[in-house]
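Consider the tokenized backbone below.
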């Protein structure tokens, strides 16, 4: 019952993170100081991604990369912030799910160890009982050898003779 609720909660959290990311995007472009920081972030991201693309395609990387205009930089930065937020929420949800799963597996492992321990104890008890029965059987065999084979069955004849003596008297 808990697993479907957790999965549903994770899905709801991911779904709700998208409008929150949109709100962050909207608000990020409106504040002047924050706007300047995100423009700088977008310009650095643009330089890095352009340099990486040029290296991948084998073009020269020592050329000057033209900066984005301010509006494109703001848009790129708020898109990046929104994606980072959604990715972070998904990452946290994933970490939570992995931890929950590992706790569940740890509980199952503890139960398995407990069951194995109880089986081991039962096995030891049965081994002791078998050993006890072996000793009893050895004692009976020793007694039977002491009387001889007819001596083992002598108690029937002794009882029958006692019955005959009782009838004769």
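A designed sequence for it:
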């Amino acid at each position: 019952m808990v697993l479907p609720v957790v999965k549903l909660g994770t899905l709801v959290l991911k779904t709700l993170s998208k409008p929150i990311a949109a709100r962050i995007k909207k608000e990020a472009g409106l504040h002047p100081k924050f706007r300047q920081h995100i423009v700088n972030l977008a310009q650095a991201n643009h330089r890095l991604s352009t340099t990486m693309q040029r290296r991948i395609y084998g073009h020269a990387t020592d050329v000057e990369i033209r900066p984005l205009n301010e509006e494109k930089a703001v848009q790129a930065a708020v898109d990046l912030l929104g994606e980072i937020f959604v990715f972070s929420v998904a990452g946290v949800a994933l970490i939570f799910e992995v931890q929950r799963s590992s706790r569940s597996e740890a509980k199952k492992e503890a139960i398995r160890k407990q069951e194995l321990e109880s089986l081991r104890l039962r096995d030891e008890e049965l081994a002791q009982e078998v050993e006890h029965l072996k000793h009893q059987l050895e004692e009976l065999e020793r007694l039977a050898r002491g009387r001889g084979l007819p001596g083992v069955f002598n108690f029937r004849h002794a009882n029958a003779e006692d019955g005959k003596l009782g009838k004769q008297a």
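Residues 94 and 141 are 69 Å apart (CA to CA).
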